[in-house]
Amino acid sequence: MQIKQILIALDQLANTLAGGYADETISSRCYRNTKLKDSPKNRWVFFYTLINTLFCNKNHCKESYQSEVLRRQYPNDFKE
Description:
The chain is mostly helical. The chain has one domain. It contains 4 helices and no strands. The two termini are 20 Å apart. The mean pLDDT is 92.
């Protein structure tokens, strides 16, 4: 579990350094900026497709977004 938390933290840091929200992964941001916008920018569509391809999962970004919304990455101590 520790490795997963470190990878999530690094992902969130990279997203924040790129101008995103501090508590959001790049995958979630790609989904939000591609699928939840009326006219998504080409760069978000590109990264959305790239990330889903790299993870060999066409729903990776969507699942990441849902994980953020449902706070699945939180430790049990922070869940109700």
